[in-house]
Amino acid sequence: MKNLTISEIASLANVSKTTVSRVLNNKPDVSGETKERILSIIKQYKFKPNALATAISKKHSKIIGLIALQGTEYIFINPYYLRVLHGITTEINKLGYQLMFCYAKENEYIDLFNNYMIEGFILLSAGVNHMNLLDEFYEYNIPFVSTTELPDNYKSNSVDINNYQGAKMAVEYLLSLGHKRIAFISSFSSLMANKERLKGYKDAMKEYGVPIDDSLIREGTPTFETGYKTMNSFETLPTAVFACSDMIAIGAIDAITSKGKKVPEDVSVVGFDDIDLASNFGLTTVQQPIFDKGKNSVKKLISLIENKKVRVPELPVKVVVRDTTSKLKESTK
Amino acid sequence: MKNLTISEIASLANVSKTTVSRVLNNKPDVSGETKERILSIIKQYKFKPNALATAISKKHSKIIGLIALQGTEYIFINPYYLRVLHGITTEINKLGYQLMFCYAKENEYIDLFNNYMIEGFILLSAGVNHMNLLDEFYEYNIPFVSTTELPDNYKSNSVDINNYQGAKMAVEYLLSLGHKRIAFISSFSSLMANKERLKGYKDAMKEYGVPIDDSLIREGTPTFETGYKTMNSFETLPTAVFACSDMIAIGAIDAITSKGKKVPEDVSVVGFDDIDLASNFGLTTVQQPIFDKGKNSVKKLISLIENKKVRVPELPVKVVVRDTTSKLKESTK
DNA sequence: TTGTAAGCGTTATCAA
DNA sequence: TTGATAACGCTTACAA
């Protein structure tokens, strides 16, 4: 049973397709009687208008593009992004839009925008190294929202937690446990979120009067490997680690224990994100509402697209204390 | 700078839009000279035809739909699926198609197919509980490919490894190490892949003359929790575990070690998939080429769509021995 | 080799 | 309240 067209519905109902279109779009000027008749036929034949035809006619497609910057090889490996994605798809579906995966080169996004009449983009992991792209989007008047903090001039185009605050709270917690040699392991340092977290780290250290040791500040990617290798690269282990990603933290823990040391007795470890594995492994971490972040990015983007003022509140962040942090041992003070 | 239309290009080149269309579609009957002229204008203005208009005109959209069956809450949590997805997006991009995330209710896929002129679907995690849907696809002549084994009548609609063989090899390996009390922990038992793996498990046991103990055969979801809880539910631990997912294996290991037992000294553990975490944790596992599975699903689907005979070979599977398996201790024989 | 005109399935304009 | 008719941006008969 093939899908009917609006014209076929029209002749079945003995009206013009204009009238059917009016009914489909809930226009006021249709008599109650004809409206009922048309609706019942639409229902009977399970008619749904062709969305692509509607798109070229109405000039918008209800398609939203998803862009994974920062190298899909890293994005497509981290459960964190899966969770974001889940939030995105859930909300998109709810609001009647569709999500198109734009896996393309940076110079092709604008073409995709035009060709497929994409209405706006959601950016995963946009960093300061992508500002040219954002400027281009801005210039072409292309709506976009980033799921991670952006520099000030694009602040309103992102949904994110307060990364500065999250990191500061975590490091303060470690400091309150007596730690002073606290390592900071960043994932992509080009992400504003990580820059803010580094600030939070430094400010917390300053507040506690602990001098900052640059050799304890490292960066890599949000992966197990980064955590593992970074920990192995220390000549003398720090007494605590604040990692910008749970995956890094898990890798760090593995490195520590395979050296014969114990977590948290010898080294305390704090992660960031609170992915499922974090609770599985009892990892102390900075929890952010990842799923809601995905949902909110859609809400914000669609409000930009439809020019509605929707208030998307900043999401909360908090430290979840589990089993990988403890007071500094007297002996190592 | 807005996107031009084919008519505008046509007048810039002093030809009809038909001729421009011919050039765009590489039709033969255009003189070399006009072709050059049109091409240079297309290039100059960076013109790309509107894909949606092309779609309704040509009757195909170059859009492929992605369907996550079996509950997105499980799909969107497992790095395995991310890796599949990565393969899918990579190949789709290469072949000039687009991927649309169809996050919808089961009865809405056909509508989406019609509305957005989707050309076919890639199914993640289709199980025997989805045969109605597949039958419907078949009936409506909707191309689809599953990234996991399907029952015999739809065998050719899937790209998968030989799950039976993979499981059999793994269990044979455990048996060769002297193990007899080998637990089998399945993820969704509705997946053909897992049914086949169970068969492989049973056949290997039979070959070694080891009686099958049904209390050692368990099922759950492809998650850490399933592994963790299942291991905790045994009154006396088995000496070896074969898990149908690395995530399950990792959860199982965590449960074992938190009981004060050691892996592999007390219990050997084998996983399935070989996700990144598996190598990170030194997990012995059944390796399948996940990324290639994603790629091949696209190849196969597009060959169905375009009616080309493309040979998509079965992917290889092998046991990767790492640090979570060892010979059965004499004491526990 | 090129162009005219109709067609794809919608919506929008304007008149009746 | 309704319906012709044009329009959206493209492809495709059919003619020239």
Description:
2 copies of one chain form a homodimer. The first copy, chain A, has 333 residues and is an alpha/beta fold. Chain A has 3 domains: 6-49, Orthogonal Bundle (434 Repressor (Amino-terminal Domain)), CATH 1.10.260; 54-160 and 290-315, Rossmann fold (3-Layer(aba) Sandwich), CATH 3.40.50.2300; 163-288 and 319-332, Response regulator (Rossmann fold). The first copy, chain A, has helices at 6-13, 17-24, 32-44, 51-58, 72-75, 79-94, 109-115, 131-139, 163-176, 192-207, 224-233, 246-258, 276-280, 290-305; strands at residues 63-68, 98-101, 120-124, 144-146, 182-186, 217-219, 240-243, 268-273, 284-287, 318-320. In chain A, the strands form 2 sheets. Chain A has a 6-stranded mixed sheet, with helices on both faces. The first copy, chain A, has a 4-stranded parallel sheet with strand order 2-1-3-4, covered by helices on one side. In chain A, α13 links the parallel β8 (268-273) and β9 (284-287). In chain A, α11 (224-233) packs across α12. The radius of gyration of chain A is 25 Å and the shape is elongated. Chain A starts with 5 loop residues before the first helix and ends in a 13-residue tail after the last strand. Chains A and B meet through α4, α6, β2, α7 and α11 of A and α4, α6, β2, α7 and α11 of B. Chain A binds a DNA duplex (16 and 16 nucleotides) through residues 5-7, 15-19, 21-22, 24-25, 29-31, 34, 49-59.
